[in-house]
Amino acid sequence: MKLSSYLQWKNLQHPVLTEYQTELWLRYTSCNNPDISGNKLLKLKYQLKQALQQKYPGLLTFGGAFSNHLVATAAAAAEHNLKSIGIVRGEEVDINNPTLTLCRSYGMQLIPVSRELYRSRHDQPWLEQLARQFPDYFQIPEGGTCKAAVQGVSELDMCNTPAGPASLLICAVGSGGTIAGLIHGAQNTPVLGIAVVKDPGLPDKIKQFLPADHSWPEWQLVQALHQPRYGHFDHQLWQFCLAFTDQAVQLEPIYTGKALYTVFELIKSGVIPAGSRLSFFHTGGLQAIKGLAYRGLLPGSEPA
Ligand SMILES: Cc1ncc(COP(=O)(O)O)c(C=O)c1O
């Protein structure tokens, strides 16, 4: 593999954590290419390996107009001299937005499709049609989520913080692949997922990666407490994200910021018991901040 990652822990400081005698350790995975941060390299690792072993000249995947996954796939493909295609939700997308501009800078060919057609992104007939149309391209599902992605994430040690064993592992949840990976790797530590999308089918999507013939650690999904609709946030949440920049911690309000905000609310309400040692996966996604600024959605300033 041309891509390499390194792992880090960061002990976050905040008055709420002090008041409730709670430790919060951010788990970082960084890559030599910063456009493949957080959960992305882990989710792509085995899919890239498969594509390379099977000698596919390209990767094809799916995403929205501001998708972190599209950028990561475009970057990973370029690092391996592979071609890439991004099937983008919505015929009306602005291919000059910062996310899609970055994808194109990596050579990704963008194919905007109607929202109606995009809804078939998991359906076999359309996937087969795309395979016939683009036989050179290894298909990666939306968000990268599949069994191979779960395996990649499962290899991340979230349990053993520098201060000792964590009492709870936490991550933001979109398509469910990341939390499924954490559950696989959790040994006996409980796992908490903060759902940043409103998707009643999410628990089942996660369970499909947790075969019933194995006893899994305890896990739970809670809806993000700020604004449950995907992508929605306000000034207060953005200010919460900015509050950590003096500790060199950057958060965006769609995934990590919203999930961490929810964690603080759960600490204050006693749902997360005082005295806990939390291990929170910083899943990356910072490129999205440029897209939010581009759309004028960030009240005030950007993080330094
Ligand atoms: C920054 C960020 N955090 C968390 C997630 C959620 O991961 P998953 O879709 O595997 O639930 C995503 C989506 O991949 C993401 O881009």
Automatic annotation (TrEMBL):
Gene3D superfamilies in alphabetical order: 3.40.50.1100
Limits of the Tryptophan synthase beta chain-like PALP domain: 18-284
Keyword Secreted applies: no
Active site residues according to the UniProt entry: 67 (nucleophile)
SUPFAM superfamilies named among the record's database cross-references: Tryptophan synthase beta subunit-like PLP-dependent enzymes
Co-factor requirement: pyridoxal 5'-phosphate
Family under the similarity heading: Belongs to the ACC deaminase/D-cysteine desulfhydrase family.
Name of the protein: Pyridoxal-phosphate dependent enzyme
